Amino acid sequence: MSEKPNILLICADQWRADCISALGHPNVKTPNLDALAREGVLFRNHFGQCTPCGPSRTSLLTGLYLMNHRSGKNGTPLDARHTNIALEARKAGYDPSLFGYTDNSVDPRGKHPNDPALTAYDEGVLPGFRAPLHLPEDMGDWVAELIKNGYDFPNGRDDVFRPKKGFEKPADRGFRYIPTEFPAEESETAYLTDEFLKWLLVREQKPWFAHFVFFRPHPPLIAPVPYNDAVHPAEVEFPHRAATHEAEAAQHPMLAYEISRLNRVGAYDEHTPLNIVTTDELEIRQMRATYYGLVNEVDFHLGRIVAHLKATGQYDRTLIIVTSDHAEMLGEHFVWGKEIYFDQSFHLPLVIRDPRPAADVTRGTQVEALTQAIDIMPTVLDWIGLKVPRTCDGASLMPFLRGEEPTDWRDAVYFEQDFRDVRLQRPETMLGINSDQCCYAVVRDKRFKYIHFAALPPLLFDLEADTHETKNLATDTAYASVMLKYAQKMLNWRLTSAERTMTNMHLGEGGVFSRE
């Protein structure tokens, strides 16, 4: 490719890996992502490094494990010393642009206490990005557009996702069938896409790097017409869980805490009368159906973006990556959201289309190898010919795109969560541990999954025999040797992946010696 290529990194918030129709999902319709996968590569075993939003995006955009970037909660500052995908891409002459949000909390050191950047966890834009359209939590630009169009939202973002007034819901549909006040053409997803396509109009002949972030299918689970009606709840599979939430909670103290945290009206979903732990079957199925409708909406607008690139001759000079920051439990184990150790929180979609001829051999293929969110940054840097920083924990996926088998590829993935509550101390109080003990790390291969807590009992699952992670084998003496093996594997990972910016440098005769 003689001309400088474009880079499009798309991240849809809270998209489950199984919610792709090309993988046989019975409800979701993703024809545009399916088409992109036929022209690129679909990675079936791709995992995020941490949850929730801020930490997971930090790992995605810095290429670092949580243990190294340490921005473990929404609102935990990200140390300004860390590089990231945008700062590195600038070395190749790109001016990375953000549409949406990065959910990063700025390093407060050197800022005045009255600086507004310190008053909201997601007001920061990751250094290196400029933001033609920044949509943090208040979604101010979009809400202003709705108000300009005549909508009555006196409380701004707090009003915008309220259910449509006066809507008569059929008896066979749940509460989350009620649509938004605005139609699909005016949704946040549509607005963001419209603005991005407008931005592209003056860049047909200019190389660009865009990080485009869909808010959906993130809750609240309310969809505009027609996406509220995309899936009938009767057609939706009920989530896998124990007979009662008390029985489910018996698996582990942290699961008990998470269920208790959600066991109240409005704990997960705004403007809702439902307690999602105790609500009835129809409501659960409807919530899942509405989530699938929101995935369909994202796919529709993904298709608009791809169609524009094709119509303007940019498709074959643009690297396109579609993924998510973290996934969604959807009621499995009585849990909603993503702040728990099950695969449904960490297993992510990933489709990459490399337009270069070298990737022709892999078009339409699916990769079974275990890959991680931290691999995205080194992949992009490798693709544009930049050196991957030694600090980066991930590895380039380029060999997979060329049909090559990478040497010494990992046989397991690793992810973590920091579940402390610095302000309110809720898990600390319920679990009887201190804030620094509110963490766990996971090593997962294709057979076993070992979860090590700093101050709580461990977990072990046999994923071949127990797909839904219902039987904890950690206390079974027959699996003592497996526990030891995976505990050692985790310790080896921690030792070899610890922060290493200057570990291969030596000062001595002749000055600084450095080995890559």
Structural features, described:
The chain has about 525 residues and is α/β, with parallel strands linked by helices. It has a single domain, classed as Alkaline Phosphatase, subunit A. It is about 25% helix and about 15% strand. The chain has helices at about 30-40, 55-60, 65-70, 85-90, 140-150, 155-160, 190-200, 245-250, 255-260, 280-310, 345, 375-385, 400, 425-430, 480-495, and strands at about 5-10, 40-45, 50, 95-100, 130-135, 210-215, 320-325, 345-350, 350-355, 365-370, 415-420, 440-445, 450-455, 460, 505-510, 510-515. The strands form 3 sheets. Strands 1, 2, 4, 5, 6, 7, 8, 9 and 10 form a 9-stranded mixed beta sheet that branches. A hairpin with a 2-residue loop joins strand 15 (about 505-510) and strand 16. Helix 1 packs across helix 10 and helix 7 (about 190-200) packs parallel to helix 10. The model has no long low-confidence stretch (mean pLDDT about 95).
SSE layout and pairings?
Layout: E1 6-12, H1 31-38, E2 41-47, E3 50-51, H2 53-62, H3 66-69, H4 85-89, E4 97-100, E5 130-134, H5 140-148, H6 157-160, H7 188-200, E6 209-214, H8 245-249, H9 253-262, H10 281-311, E7 318-324, H11 343-346, E8 347-348, E9 350-353, E10 365-372, H12 376-383, H13 398-401, E11 413-418, H14 426-431, E12 439-444, E13 448-453, E14 459-462, H15 480-497, E15 505-508, E16 511-514
Parallel strand pairs: 1-6, 1-7, 2-10, 3-11, 4-5, 4-6
Antiparallel strand pairs: 2-8, 2-9, 7-9, 11-12, 12-13, 13-14, 15-16
